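User: Please predict the structure of the protein below. I'd like the answer in structure-token form so I can feed it into my own downstream comparison script.

Assistant: Understood. Taking the following sequence of 158 residues as input:
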Amino acid sequence: MLILDPGTQPLSNAEVLAHIQSLDAKYARDGRTETIPDNLRKVMRDVKSILTIPTQPTCPVDTAPLVTEAQKAAAPTFRSERVFAALARRLRAKPFSLLPAEILQVFNHVPRSRTELTMIVQEGEERFAEEVLDQCLDVIREIMVEGRGLDVVNGNGV
């Protein structure tokens, strides 16, 4: 294995999925699909299946097997860097002041309840009042689920 960049930078779920999909395409293009080791094939399959669950931001909307309207309503709208930039800008600002690692976890997991959010945010219950946690969830819902608030990116805000 060749290490291209020794830096340690956390990856988003979208980056992991893109890498797995590019590996799939490379193996198919090179005609090596039969020579992929079983353990690698299983890991790649499992990662793809987890990251394409309808409630994941990485799930492609047009191919998602969304069964109910409730699932459709709960599916996040992540499709571009604009969403991450808008989310990061809002969650870095006061009253939230989330850390970069916390913002990445919010982006990856799209918490929908106060309990889910406090599991992601370090000492969330101690750092924030319940009202602030609810405001944070509103921001996440607005940007990640409803797709609103993106117009401030690449023009007026970020």
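That's the full token string. Helices lie at 13-29, 38-51, 69-74, 81-92, 100-109, 114-120, 124-127, 130-145.
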